[in-house]
Design goal:
This protein has 610 residues and is an all-alpha fold. Among the domains are: 122 residues, no CATH class; 122 residues, no CATH class; 141 residues, no CATH class. It has 32 helices and no strands.
């Protein structure tokens, strides 16, 4: 599947010669021969369908006549269908019986209550979302490549925040594309980014009767991520047995239990243990969850002996029933599990704080959300140990009488991070504490980290107060040169050289990012930029198919497309995977489409974390 996506991407990027002309009147990216859909006009002599516009009389069946006697209508099993035994009928839920007898409607709500598929999303334009028609006339293939081709691991916290905003926007689907499939692509990427709550809200914006196989899978992934097991039940009720894989059958059984048929649900789950079903541990967890509903409650003992791995549904069911999987199963797991820990309300505060040390740096948690989490830990008298100490330290960072004590507390939190990601998460945590610290020359040595902390929450005006303590060419100066809303004069060659002289990063990565950011924002002397680029061995003028597309999208002021392309260009496990050329095109494109604040924060973050 991934190989086919990459091949599709190559085809689209090769064929695309122009982007939309504007957000309100875009053009297709495909050549003319791809633009016109096949005509839907029936061939001459083709009878009109009963539901077709203008059809007022239902056509007679072949060979029929007005004098034929109509057969009584009633539920009939399809030819060759399996006729259930009496025992199977007894164990069927009412929902399954309705489906068997053909009594299940496509929609579980009246027509007047159904929602339009014209625009799907959770963030309107007047709420900060993107214009609804941003990708309305783009190639569906291009859009799905940008969504499905993104693994969701974005190096930049601010890039992650911006991409989440674009994916959650209320948007028209590309012409010729099912809006449900468009929602599925966006929700799937949100899940891969660790944004389970946003993905769940997005799939819930579509009525179950409009679900496609792709949206059904995206919904399952979103509900698994958020451990909202019964959230999928309205969808299982409508789709029924159209899907038959083990995950689906287990969820249908659980939903049956919560619909009042616990005995049948337990029997169905019993039969699922085996090669065509779920492993025994997962079935036991499902039975424990299903057993919490109705009169069929039963005790199910969970033993982890012999379990050697973890998967999303196993983890979701475990935490949903109040269990903590053993450390042997949770060590070394992908970051998505840490993101679940940070946002799952049923988990303990200490577990959530551990996940926050990754989620904060990723952009999943805001500074305010992290402070709120630590405040809850501080208020709990029964929490002791490292996390209680960290919560107390955070309080000192905000309210200690002496500024020196506040700075000491902030440094203790930063240094307490287990790795670079955790350290930056702690800087997100202390952003507002750093903004409260008075500007003093005694603290100039700590200015780079204080500035990075403030900019992690977008507090650029507070950070700029430290300009007097930021010597030209220092790390503090570099961040502020990028983060300032405006600059009166371009950066010259001597400032760039001074910065490189202070740069201890591998391969002068920070210097490369500084040049890319300044050039993207138009804040560096052209001659100085060329000389410095040659000195660093980089060519900001180098073009790729991706860079041409994002440049064209910015030329035509299409914010949504610029953000999707920027997200594709910001993938990686860390800033060491980011190239200065990609950063230059991303910052430049965002700045040109009116997202200058985001462009400045991404550029400053690159220098701080590079």
């Amino acid at each position: 599947m991934k190989r086919s996506l990459l091949l599709s991407a190559g085809v689209v990027l090769t064929l695309s010669s122009a982007l939309v002309t504007a957000q309100d009147s875009p053009e297709s990216l495909l050549p003319p021969r791809f633009e016109k859909p096949k005509s839907a006009t029936p061939k001459p002599g083709t009878p009109a369908r009963p539901d077709a516009p203008g059809a007022v009389v239902q056509p007679l069946p072949p060979g029929g006549s007005p004098g034929d006697v109509a057969r009584p209508a009633g539920p009939m099993l399809p030819s060759g269908a399996h006729i259930p035994t009496l025992h199977e009928l007894e164990t069927m839920s009412p929902d399954q019986l309705d489906e068997l007898l053909g009594l299940k409607p496509k929609f579980d709500m009246p027509a007047a209550a159904r929602r339009s598929m014209k625009q799907v999303g959770i963030l309107a334009e007047d709420e900060g979302g993107m214009p609804a028609g941003s990708v309305g006339r783009q190639s569906p293939l291009l859009i799905m490549v940008l969504l499905d081709g993104n693994k969701g691991q974005i190096v930049s916290r601010w890039g992650h925040i911006l991409l989440r905003r674009a994916l959650a926007s209320r948007l028209d689907a590309p012409a010729g594309m099912n809006p449900a499939d468009f929602a599925a692509g966006r929700a799937g990427l949100l899940v891969r980014m660790g944004e389970g709550e946003a993905a769940r809200e997005l799939v819930q914006d579509v009525d179950a009767g409009n679900y496609t196989p792709a949206l059904t899978q995206a919904a399952m992934d979103a509900y698994a991520f958020t451990a909202d097991i019964t959230g999928i039940c309205p969808v299982t009720a409508v789709i029924g047995s159209q899907r038959k894989d083990a995950d689906w059958r287990a969820l249908r059984a659980i939903c049956s239990s919560f619909q009042g048929d616990g005995s049948s649900a337990q029997s169905q789950l019993d039969r699922m243990v085996g090669p065509d079903g779920w492993p025994r541990i997962d079935v036991l967890l499902a039975q424990r969850y299903a057993g919490s509903a109705g009169k069929a409650r039963q005790a199910v003992k969970i033993e982890w002996d012999g379990v050697s791995d973890m998967n999303p549904w196993r983890y979701a069911l475990a935490i949903a029933v109040g269990l903590t999987p053993p450390d042997s199963l949770t060590k070394g797991l992908p970051k998505r599990y840490a993101y679940v820990q940070a946002t799952a309300p049923m988990l303990g505060l200490e577990t959530r704080a551990s996940g926050a040390d990754q989620a904060g740096a990723a952009g999943i948690l805001s500074s305010a959300a992290m402070v709120d989490l630590y405040s809850q830990i501080y208020a709990q008298d029964d929490i002791n140990g490292d996390w209680a100490k960290a919560a107390d330290t955070l309080r000192s960072a905000y309210v200690a009488d002496q500024p020196a004590d506040r700075l000491t507390a902030m440094r203790a939190l930063w240094d307490g991070g287990a790795d670079d990601e955790a350290r930056y998460s702690r800087q997100v945590l202390t952003a507002y504490a750093a903004a409260r610290l008075p500007v003093m020359s005694d603290y100039a040595e700590q200015a780079p980290e204080l500035i990075a902390s403030m900019l992690a929450a977008g507090l650029d005006q507070n950070a700029l107060r430290w300009s007097a303590q930021a010597d030209t060419g220092s790390l503090a100066w570099g961040q502020l040169a990028l983060a300032a809303p405006t600059r009166s004069s371009p950066v010259d060659g001597s400032a760039l050289s001074n910065f490189q002289g202070n740069d201890k990063s591998d391969g002068y990565r920070k210097s490369r990012f500084l040049l890319a950011g300044l050039a993207g924002l138009g804040r560096v002397d052209t001659a100085a930029a060329g000389s410095f680029a040659e000195k660093l061995g980089i060519d900001l003028g180098r073009q790729t198919k991706w860079s041409r597309l994002i440049d064209q999208a910015s030329d035509l002021n299409n914010r949504e497309l610029v953000i999707l392309l920027a997200g594709l260009g910001m993938q990686g496990s860390g800033w060491d995977k980011m190239t200065s050329v990609n950063l230059y095109h991303i910052v430049s494109a965002l700045n040109r489409v009116g997202l200058g604040a985001e462009a400045r924060m991404i550029a400053a973050e690159a220098v701080a974390r590079g």
